[in-house]
Write a structure and sequence with these properties.
Elements: H1 2-30, H2 32-75, H3 79-84, H4 92-98, H5 103-118, H6 122-130, H7 139-153, H8 157-169, H9 177-190, H10 194-207, H11 214-227
Helix pairs in contact: 2-5, 4-5, 5-6, 5-7, 6-7, 7-8, 8-9, 9-10, 10-11
Length: 228
């Protein structure tokens, strides 16, 4: 009996499905303009997406070539030429304006921030570095640290401590994280947050005991504890 009922349900469902398909086909026949319009819009969206990706990739390649000389100037410590260009080659500032949506334009923000920091333009350095973002293990943490340096120069110690902490927490590693923690501890100390400074030093001691920062972390932590 159960099998007969199951067979009946299947037949009825098949009939309902067939009726729906026939209804859909009839609607399509009666509304061809709407159907072709929807299909056309979907095709345009898909084509636009892949077209933009191709165009953006080409723009990024061009921006990378344009930025080559600016990077060389940066490495040679020719900071004005690096950020403003030399009349023939673009500087980081122009690359950001012309190619802001590309990976190269994004990286130019990092370089521009580093240049401004070296030039003593601390608030401008923060402005550029805030517009930079990366999933890279080293570069993003470095950008946070540079923002910390800029805030330290501006005597905004609490903000500096926050950026150094972000640098330390961004994909921690034994090569750079200890130095970020030491900077964070100093900033915490200057902002009268000795408890947080002690915790930062303790983290160096516990997690990075092979680092060159280990001995200083022990010394400064003991000094803070002795003063508290």
């Amino acid at each position: 009996m159960a099998k007969n009922e199951e067979k009946k349900d299947l037949l009825e469902n098949a009939e309902v499905l067939a009726e729906k398909v026939e209804g859909a086909e009839h609607w399509i026949e009666q509304n061809p303009k709407i159907v072709f319009g929807v299909v056309g819009v979907i095709a345009l969206v898909v084509a636009g997406y892949f077209g933009f990706r191709y165009w953006n990739g080409a723009q990024d390649d061009l921006a990378q070539k344009e930025m080559f000389q600016a990077v060389r100037y940066f490495e040679a410590d020719s900071l004005d030429l690096a950020i403003n260009g030399d009349g023939n080659n673009l500087g980081f500032k122009q690359i950001i304006e012309d190619y802001s949506w590309t990976d190269a334009g994004n990286l130019a923000n990092f370089y521009a921030g580093a240049v401004c920091l070296k030039q003593g333009k601390f608030q401008l350095a923060i402005f550029y570095l805030e517009d930079f973002s990366s999933n890279d293990q080293i570069v993003q943490a470095r950008a946070y640290s540079l923002m910390g340096d800029a805030n330290m120069e501006l005597k905004k110690y609490e903000e500096a401590a926050g950026f150094y902490s972000k640098a330390a927490d961004h994909k921690p590693n034994k090569y750079f994280t200890p130095s970020y923690l030491m900077k964070a501890a100093l900033a915490f100390t200057k902002s009268n947050q000795n408890d947080k400074a002690i915790k930062a030093y303790q983290r160096v001691i516990d997690e990075y005991w092979e680092s060159t920062e280990f001995q200083n972390a022990r010394k400064y932590k003991a000094k803070l504890e002795g003063n508290s």
